[in-house]
Design brief:
The structure is a single chain. The protein has about 325 residues and is an alpha+beta fold. About 35% of the residues lie in helices and about 15% in strands. The chain has 10 helices and 9 strands. The protein has helices spanning about 40-55, 60-70, 75-85, 110-115, 130-135, 140-155, 200-215, 230-235, 260-270, 285-290; strands at about 95-100, 100-105, 165, 180-185, 190-195, 250-255, 280-285, 300, 310. A 7-stranded mixed beta sheet has the order 3-4-5-6-7-8-9. A two-stranded antiparallel sheet has the order 1-2. Strand 1 and strand 2 form a beta hairpin. The longest helix has 17 residues, at about 140-155. It is globular and about 50 Å long.
């Protein structure tokens, strides 16, 4: 990143969104090896903060610290990096304040800088998080809940925070399906992730139908006449030998004002959802996910009773 380094490196301390996109190509890469949580020079930290904001759209200093400097006791180093990005000309990040909290996002210049680094996966229509950060309709809380979900997976080493894609369109006969996020898991497989705060049960069930429709969607492009036709999900997620199953669909129920508690909504969803053995659908609450860990038995599978399973123990779709 073309940002100027701090005069002194950070020192380790004792351990203690829904905007639209237009593209449909979703290339999958191998999971990135996790970097050791060691001392980061100022330029390294600023570069990572910019990339993370470009990827996840918005975050608080606390969330960025959890991802980038997990062994630091405070957010001072992250805040310094954000201020330096803000003071660039033009500014690479922006922020909004509400209720004594700051919400940070990339500016258009910041997105361009992050894209030029070559570290971001190519995604057409990538947008800043300014509208989400300033939203009064719950978009900001939805986006922050997604970041907390990313943190839970990252801390459990189930999926590195750099291996998430937010709101990438997937083609279906009825139009694009836009998951809240797609996570590239540590074992090389993928998972669709949906954050629910206020969606009605009817809309949640309709989303399941969209995933079923996507499972049969043909691949985009002209394809290879010498090869058996594959569906879009096979081209994107199954691997070259089609050794991987259709990605599981993971719902995370989060708190929202004037709504039933997340565990109540989760139970009601299971009462209404019919099992679909072509798609594995599993649910949890944000509290369980962050308290117990994404790799622990926190996932309840639709149609498989009330027992909870670890992520690696989810059943494969038929």
């Amino acid at each position: 990143m073309s940002v100027v380094a701090d005069q002194a490196p950070d020192s380790p301390a004792p351990a203690g969104c829904n905007s639209s996109s237009t593209g449909t190509d979703v290339p999958v890469e191998a999971p990135r090896p996790r970097k050791a949580a060691a001392t980061k020079a100022g330029a390294d930290l600023r570069g990572e903060a910019l990339l993370t904001l470009a990827q996840l759209r918005l975050a608080t200093p606390r969330q960025l610290k959890a991802l980038l400097l997990p062994h630091q006791q405070d957010t001072d180093h992250v805040r310094r990096a954000l201020r330096n990005l803000l003071n660039e000309s033009p500014a690479l990040v922006g922020r909004t304040h509400r209720a004594q909290q700051s919400y940070w996002y990339c500016t258009p210049a910041g997105l361009a800088e992050a894209a030029a680094s070559g570290e971001l996966a190519p995604t057409a229509g990538r947008t800043t998080g300014k509208r989400i950060a300033a939203s009064k309709t719950g978009l900001r809380e939805h986006g922050l809940a997604l970041v907390d979900t990313v943190i839970a997976f990252h801390q459990a080493e189930a999926a590195d925070h750099a291996d998430w894609r937010v709101e990438v369109p997937h083609p279906t006969p009825a139009g694009n399906l836009v998951p809240d996020a797609v996570a590239l898991l540590a074992d090389g497989s993928s998972a669709f992730v949906e954050i629910d705060r206020t969606m009605s049960y009817a809309r949640l069930l309709a989303k399941l139908e969209r995933y079923e429709s996507y499972r049969s969607a043909p691949a985009s492009g002209r394809g290879n006449a010498a090869r058996v036709p594959r569906s879009h999900w096979q081209e994107t997620y199954a691997g070259p030998s089609l050794e991987r199953s259709f990605p599981p669909l993971l719902f995370v129920f989060t708190p929202a004002p004037r709504r039933a508690a997340p565990d109540t909504r989760e139970a009601a969803f299971h009462d209404r959802a019919r099992p679909n053995w072509r798609i594995t659908v599993a649910t949890t609450t944000l509290h369980q996910l962050t308290h117990d860990g994404a790799d622990r038995p926190v996932w309840r599978v639709v149609g498989r009773g009330e027992d909870r399973r670890a992520l690696t123990a989810l059943p494969k779709p038929q």
